[in-house]
Every structure is written in C-alpha cells, then in structure tokens.
Amino acid sequence: MRGFRYLAVVALVVLLIASFAVSQSKPQSQVEQNKKIAVAFLSMIFNDHKVEEAFKQYADPGYKQHNPFAASGAQAAINFLGPYLKSNPEARTEIKRVIADGDLVAIHNNPKQNANDRGRAVVDIFRIENGKVVEHWDVVQDVPEKSANTNTMF
Question: What pLDDT, on a 0 to 100 scale, did the predictor assign at position 113?
Fold first, then answer.
C-alpha cells in the first residue's frame, strides 16, 4: 500500500511538472520567436543595409513609429532609413543584449557610422504582432569621449 501511495505521488508530481511545462512553453516560444524577428529585422536594416527587404519581410505596412524625426508607416521608414544608409555605407550596429516581455522586444545596440566612430548607445523597442513588427520606439545617447566611470555604456 505504501509503495502504491509513493507511485501515485510521483505520478502526480510528474503530471503537474509536465502540465506546467506545456503551459509555459507556448508563451516562451512566442517570446523567443519575437526576439528572433526583432533581431533579424534590425540586423537586416543596419548591418545588411537591406531596408526595403527588411520592411517587406518583417514589418506591418501600418508600422507605427515613435521616433519624433520619422513618420509612421513602413514606406516612410524606408524613405527615412534608406538615404541615411546609402550615405553611410560602412554603418553597422553591434547588438549587445536582447530583452523580451510578451509582444515587446528591446534591443540594446551600438550603431556606428564607420570603424572610427564611437557610436551611440541605443535601445530599440519593437512590438511584434502576428509575426510582424507593428510598432517601434528608440532611446539614443551618444557615446562620449570621456566617462566619469569605467563601466562603459554596454
């Protein structure tokens, strides 16, 4: 009888763990997918300089922009970013970290116009809906020549 109770408890624990794992796997896999979409989108734009292709593949046509210097809409973003990257063919960004929560993905990155540029510390925040980037915010800060500490901005 004691062995039966032990097996029943073990079976219940295994069932609870399996149930929890299944319930957690869907949101986690969607969050991971959102991270992949945001990273691919940002990389295709700023490292491959394939602005139009990135927006066609990863962005919703109604892409909503919160940067005050750019208009909303995928085509407006293409028109804004395309000329900048054409005039800065060496421009690249280095992704430092990616953080996601639900449909939001934040990418901390260091874009530079060329190899001699200190660049900027940027956090791009993307909202992903149905596998497409639908909204974008960014916070930008120049990397100074001198800092009051040795921690770096990254």
Answer: 98
